[in-house]
Amino acid sequence: MSDPVNTLPARAAVPRFRLASVDVKRGSLFALLLLLAAVQTGCVHRRMTIRSVPSGALVKVDGEEIGYTPVSMDFTYYGTREITLTKDGYETQSVMQKVRTPWYQWMPLDAVTDNLLPFEVTNRHEFTYQLQPKVVVPTEELLNRGNMLRSETQIGQ
Fold first, then answer.
1. Confidence band (pLDDT; 50, 70, 90) for 71?
2. Where do the domains of the chain lie?
3. What element of type H or E holds 86?
4. How many of the other CB atoms lie within 10 Å of CB of 42?
C-alpha cells in the first residue's frame, strides 16, 4: 500500500505553505487594525457656554430648556441655533446664534480629527448676552392711551 500523504508532488506543498503564510499576514494586519481602532482616542468634544448680564436667566436652545446662566451644554453639529433668554424684570431675548465650524472640522480634515488623532480636541464656544430691563408702563398711562384710542375710533364712526 502506498502512503497517501507522500503521493502529492513536492511542489504542490509549496503553494499551500505560501497561501497559509498570506492568511497569517492578513489576519495579523486585521488584528493590528482592530487593535488600533480600539485604542484610538481621537475625537472632538464640542461645548457651548451661554452667559447673560445679569446672570440667572433661563436659557432655551432650539426650544429646549438647558438651565440658568451661566450654563454649558455639549453639542454634536455646528450651525445656527435659536437661543432664548428669559428673566423676571427683563425683556425676553431671542437670538439666532451662528456656531462656527473650526478649520479642523472642515471636510476632509474632520475624518482625521474625529477618528485618528491620539488625543482629544476640545472645541469651546462662549456667548454672552446683555439683557435689557423691562419697561414698565404705569397703569395711569395705559388707561389714558386706551381712552384716547377709544375716542379716536368713536370720532371715526
1. very high
2. 43-134
3. strand 79-86
4. 14
Distance between CA atoms of residues 147 and 84, nearest Å: 35
Which backbone phi and psi does 21 adopt, to 5 degrees?
-65, -40
Nearest CA among 121, 117, 126, 104 for reference residue 45: 121
* pLDDT tens-digit series, residues 105-152: 677 766 666 666 676 777 899 999 999 998 888 888 888 988 999 988
- What are 57-67's pLDDT values in tens digits? 999 999 999 99
Strand pairing partners for 45?
122
Residues 6+ apart with CB under 8 A from 117: 41, 42, 43
Cell of residue 12, nine digits: 504542490
Query: C-alpha cell of 84?
Result: 432664548
Prior bond of 102 cis (ω within 30°) = no
Cell of residue 51, nine digits: 452667559
Residue 46, number of CB atoms within 10 A of its CB? 19
Q: Does domain 43-134 have CATH number 2.60.40?
A: yes
Half-sphere exposure for 1 (CA within 13 Å, toward CB): 3
